[in-house]
Amino acid sequence: MVECSGVTPINERRRRRQIEVGNKLNVLMITIDSLRADHLGCYGYQHHTSPNIDQLASEGVLAERFLCSSIPTHPSYTTLYTGQHAIRHKIVAHAGKNVLAREAPFLSELFMDAGYNTCAADNLMRARLWFGRGYEYYIDSSIRRPLVVNVSCEDINARTIHWLRTHPDEPFFLFLHYWDPHYPFTPPPSYRHLFYDGANPTDPDNHTLDKWWEYPFGSIARDTWLRTPDGPITDPDYVMALYDQEIRYLDDHLPELLEALDVLGLTENTLVFLVADHGESMTEHGIFYEHHGLYDCVLHVPMIARLPGRIKEGTRLPQILQMHDVAPTILEAAGLPIPEEMDGHSFWPLLTGEGQVGGYKSVISLESSWQSKWSLRTDRYKFILSRVPDFYGNPLQELFDLAIDPQEEHNLAEEQPAIVSEMEAELEAWIAARLKEEIGTGPRHLSAAHQVLHNLLAGEL
Fold this sequence. Notes:
The chain is α/β, with parallel strands linked by helices.
C-alpha cells in the first residue's frame, strides 16, 4: 500500500479525534433472543454451535451463572435497560398493559445524556415505545419481513456495519438485537444437515410431539415450518437441531461485526457485551420450544464481556449474577454515574479483576405472561411457586437440589417440606417488602399501573 506524502494515516487520525472527544469508551451491546447458555460450546455444549462466540469468551470474561430476573422478552429487556427488578419497573408480562414510568432510568438515555451517539438495531419499539428511549438512530430491518422475528443476522449486520462506518469518530452506545434462535426455527438450507443424528425425522410412529400439536404454536409449527414432503416432523431432536442450526448461523456471521471494529480501529476502546434475554425450553417439563417456565433452560443465559487491556482474557466468573446488574456494570465501565433507582449492582470490578467479592447468595425471578410464577434460587436449591395451576399440570410448588440435579428433573417439594417452608417464607417476605416499598400497605393505594403486581402477589392472575 502506498501512502501519500504528508497525509496522516487514517487510524492515527481516528486516534487523535478520539482523544479530542475525551476518549470515551464505546459500548457494543449484543443481545441474542432466546439463547440458552447450555447450547454454547463455551458453556459445555457437545455440539459445535458457537466457535466464534466461544472465541469471544476466550478473549474476555464469561459469567457461568448469569440468570434472568424476569421473562420473557419485554420484561427481560426492560430489566436490562433500567437496571431494575421487574417488581420495581412493573413490566411483568410480555405485551402486558403496564407502561414503563417516564422517570425510570434507561441505559441508552443515560449514554445519550452523557454525549454519546446512540443507535439501536432492533424492533421492540414497534410493540412498546419505551424501547426507543435515548436513541438518536433506530434501525428496524425487520420492517422488510412479514414477521419481526424473521429478521436475520445478515439483515442487522448489513445496516449496523454501515452505521459504524459512517460514525467511526464519535463515542457510541450501539445496541443489537439478534432474533435468529427465536421460534420459528428456520435456518438457511445450507445449515440443515447439522447436529441431527436421528434416522427418520418424520417417523409416523413417533408421537413425542403429539402433545405440542394441541397448543397454538405447536399446531402452527406442524402445519408450516415443520411440514415436509414426507409429512410433519415428529422427532423432537430434529427440532432441537434446527434451534442449534440457528445458533450456528448467527455465530458464523458474528465475526463480520467484530471485524468491522478492527478495520475501523475501534476494538481497543470498545466494550463488547453479549447477553441473551432468556433461554428456550426444548421439551423440558412438558414445555415445547417456548420461553416460559422458571427452569434454568430459560433463566440461565450467556453473559460475555470483552475489553482489551481492561478485562482479563479467559476469565470465568462463578458468582450468581442477574440481568438487572447489566446496566450499572456498563455505566461503571464507561465512568458514568449509576442512578440510585437501579436495583442491580455493578460487577465491573469482577470483570477487570480489581475485585473478588460480588454476586448473590440468593436471587428471585418472576414470570406473568403464560404462567404466574416466582422462583427463589440459592447456591444449592431452587424453589418455584406457582400462584395458579399452569396448563402443563406442573406442581404448584417445586424444589430442586441443583447440586445433584442440575437439569431440575426431580421435584423434592414433598420430600423436603422444611426447606420448602423456609424458602417460601423468604420469597413471600421479599415480595411483600418490595410491594410495600412501591405501593404502600393496602390495595386502596394501588394505581392502575400497580394492580398487576398486587394481583400477582394475591394469586389473581
